[in-house]
Design brief:
Layout (H helix, E strand, L loop, with lengths): L11 H16 L4 H14 L13 E2 L6 E7 L4 E7 L2 H14 L4 H6 L4 H4 L2 H4 L2 H20 L1
Antiparallel strand pairs: 1-2, 2-3
Helix pairs in contact: 1-3, 2-3, 3-7
InterPro entries: Fe-S_metab-assoc_dom
Family: Belongs to the SufE family.
Protein name: Fe-S metabolism associated domain-containing protein
Length: 147
């Protein structure tokens, strides 16, 4: 188990490594339908947020599906949980969590979320879904800035 109280545990390089791993993972998928299937598989595997723990203040508006985002601060990192009622969106949330969950705020702010667009996610999604991803990232970055 990672010690999140140790600020040296995660760095920007760790986020870069996670981004590179995601790009390599998606590079082997030939077309959008393969990427979509993989996103749905990631969505099925996402722990999410149990319905009884979904609060109105955690809901993110601006996407065609319902989104919830819970960000908790530890002394050295942000712990992030997210969920959606749409399977594709759950997969996109899984990508965001792989990048940012458990990372220190400074590392989050120093990292560009452009990898999500490079995965061809932005080009192939409905504008409201792509907007949902951007809203989630914006909220995470705002929480990192406030930490």
């Amino acid at each position: 188990m990672t010690d999140l109280a140790d600020p040296t545990v995660f760095t920007v390089a760790d986020i870069d490594a996670a981004a590179a791993a995601l790009e390599a993972e998606f590079a082997g998928l030939d077309d959008w339908s393969a990427r979509l299937k993989h996103l749905m598989d990631l969505g099925r595997a996402l722990d999410g947020i149990p319905p009884q723990q979904r609060r109105d203040q955690d809901q993110v508006t601006g996407c065609q599906s319902q989104l919830w985002l819970v960000i908790e601060r530890t002394p050295a990192a942000l712990r992030i949980r997210a969920d959606s009622d749409a399977l594709i969106m759950r997969g996109l949330l899984a990508l965001v969590l792989r990048l940012y969950d458990g990372r220190p705020p400074a590392a989050i702010l120093a990292h560009s979320p452009a990898v999500l667009d490079r995965l061809a996610v932005g080009r192939n999604l409905a504008p409201s879904r792509a907007n949902g991803v951007h809203l989630i990232v914006k909220r995470i970055r705002e929480a990192a800035a406030a930490a």
